[in-house]
Design goal:
It is built from nine helices and five strands; from the N terminus they run E-H-E-H-H-H-E-H-E-H-H-H-E-H. By secondary structure, it is of the alpha/beta class. Helix 2 crosses helix 4 and helix 4 runs parallel beside helix 5. The longest helix has 18 residues.
Length: about 170
């Protein structure tokens, strides 16, 4: 069985995903990392600057389709992955898979992103609001309905540690 973690950047997909993979003896896959490897490992921000967002999104869809041919994985999707119809279809049609949306309050997401010293260099801004709380709120307005429609389960990670989140997900869903 595969577990796909869905959510905005800084929602804990990678951190929680690594814990789940270790505790469930599954492989951990981060689709952002695999997509960056297709461009010889620059940051997402560099890929967008040098090749454009459409090239990144096309490679990202290829990665998602390829990853979903395997099983026994915990998969962290990039925050914008499901905005691509091809990736959304691949996730929706994945067999023997549970899809979990890691929901988080925008203010907490902003705090986490602000506290991540690598984020400004590695992640592109998504709107003219340049990484602000307003940007997060604006992007979530667009993405939340797609995250929710794509998920089998939603878990609010706003007020829990990554360890608590992993334990809850294992006990409740996995």
């Amino acid at each position: 069985m595969n577990v796909i973690l869905i959510g905005y950047r800084a929602s804990g997909k990678t951190s929680i995903g690594n814990i789940l993979a270790n505790q469930l003896w599954k492989d951990f896959v981060d689709t952002d990392n695999l997509t960056c490897k297709k461009f010889d490992n620059p940051s997402i921000a560099q890929i967008w600057e040098e090749h454009g967002e459409p090239a990144f999104r096309e490679a990202e869809c290829d990665v998602v389709e390829q990853v979903l041919t395997e099983s026994n994985q915990i998969i962290a999707l990039g925050g914008g992955t499901l905005m691509q119809e091809r990736a959304r279809d691949a996730v929706a049609n994945a067999e023997n898979t549970i899809r979990i949306y890691l929901k988080c309050d925008p203010t907490v997401l902003h705090q986490r992103i602000t506290n991540d010293t690598q984020s400004p260099d590695s992640r592109p801004n998504l709107t003219a609001h340049q990484g602000s709380l307003e940007e997060i709120q604006q992007v979530l307005t667009e993405r939340t309905p797609i995250y929710e429609a794509s998920a089998d389960q939603t878990f609010d990670v706003t007020n829990v540690t990554i360890e608590e989140a992993a334990r809850y997900l294992i006990e409740k869903y996995l």
